[in-house]
């Protein structure tokens, strides 16, 4: 009956060794199992969001596609971490006596930051489009968000106390993002109607609360080496599950009765069911008289072209 037993061989196939250097503080099979579970949820959520999008007209799928892209990228990142890939050993600043975090270097998953570099701008795009924010504001907040992620990654890869300088830069960037979500974005959304304001407030509040917890996780994981990589996996995993699949479900539910055109998103379809496309296809050319038949034979006679 051995063939019925499920076994996670990721740590055996991909041991704690990168470029000839091992990691003293690394995930165990329990951490890998948790990463696999989160990967499965992210994958399932991707197909659910895409499936829900198919039930909508193509012009109304923009939020489904953005949200599905978020969980799709996250699924790949969690696949990598569950496989014990996408990490590098970094010497810790604080060496602890706790057996779970005892050692010289710690496993730092840089693939997590690649995930965030791609998905957090998409999360903000979901929210900013919901609030119909001006494009200059959208572009700038995405830039600030990417600064936040990059400084977090650089800080995690620094062994000395200088890592906390990058931590401060990242927190400053986060403060700006939170301000836009709590103040500017909420005001814009409320002007567009009660349903839009409710959708933005619900998803924006969830995002704000969760994103404030990420620096806490960073401080006790990559920064302070206080909790084990397995506990780190659980902490970040719960945050990501709430910030991505749960956020996505709430966002799509909130948009169920909102026409993207109300948000300034005028998206045209490519078939003639779209009035804009239909009118364009049926409109006469610049050199054709409106009353002409474009040279098409009618009742056995050829119409004249003016």
UniProtKB/TrEMBL annotation:
<keyword id="KW-0812">Transmembrane</keyword>
<dbReference type="Pfam" id="PF01036">
    <property type="entry name" value="Bac_rhodopsin"/>
</dbReference>
<dbReference type="InterPro" id="IPR001425">
    <property type="entry name" value="Arc/bac/fun_rhodopsins"/>
</dbReference>
<dbReference type="InterPro" id="IPR018229">
    <property type="entry name" value="Rhodopsin_retinal_BS"/>
</dbReference>
<keyword id="KW-0681">Retinal protein</keyword>
<feature type="transmembrane region" description="Helical">
    <location>
        <begin position="34"/>
        <end position="55"/>
    </location>
</feature>
<keyword id="KW-0600">Photoreceptor protein</keyword>
<dbReference type="GO" id="GO:0007602">
    <property type="term" value="P:phototransduction"/>
</dbReference>
<dbReference type="GO" id="GO:0005886">
    <property type="term" value="C:plasma membrane"/>
</dbReference>
<keyword id="KW-1133">Transmembrane helix</keyword>
<keyword id="KW-0716">Sensory transduction</keyword>
<feature type="transmembrane region" description="Helical">
    <location>
        <begin position="195"/>
        <end position="214"/>
    </location>
</feature>
<feature type="compositionally biased region" description="Polar residues">
    <location>
        <begin position="289"/>
        <end position="306"/>
    </location>
</feature>
<feature type="transmembrane region" description="Helical">
    <location>
        <begin position="62"/>
        <end position="81"/>
    </location>
</feature>
<feature type="transmembrane region" description="Helical">
    <location>
        <begin position="113"/>
        <end position="131"/>
    </location>
</feature>
<comment type="similarity">
    <text>Belongs to the archaeal/bacterial/fungal opsin family.</text>
</comment>
<keyword id="KW-0157">Chromophore</keyword>
<dbReference type="GO" id="GO:0005216">
    <property type="term" value="F:monoatomic ion channel activity"/>
</dbReference>
<dbReference type="GO" id="GO:0005783">
    <property type="term" value="C:endoplasmic reticulum"/>
</dbReference>
<protein>
    <submittedName>
        <fullName>Family A G protein-coupled receptor-like protein</fullName>
    </submittedName>
</protein>
<feature type="transmembrane region" description="Helical">
    <location>
        <begin position="138"/>
        <end position="158"/>
    </location>
</feature>
<keyword id="KW-0472">Membrane</keyword>
<dbReference type="GO" id="GO:0009881">
    <property type="term" value="F:photoreceptor activity"/>
</dbReference>
<feature type="transmembrane region" description="Helical">
    <location>
        <begin position="164"/>
        <end position="183"/>
    </location>
</feature>
<feature type="region of interest" description="Disordered">
    <location>
        <begin position="278"/>
        <end position="306"/>
    </location>
</feature>
<dbReference type="InterPro" id="IPR043476">
    <property type="entry name" value="Yro2-like_7TM"/>
</dbReference>
<feature type="transmembrane region" description="Helical">
    <location>
        <begin position="234"/>
        <end position="253"/>
    </location>
</feature>
<keyword id="KW-0675">Receptor</keyword>
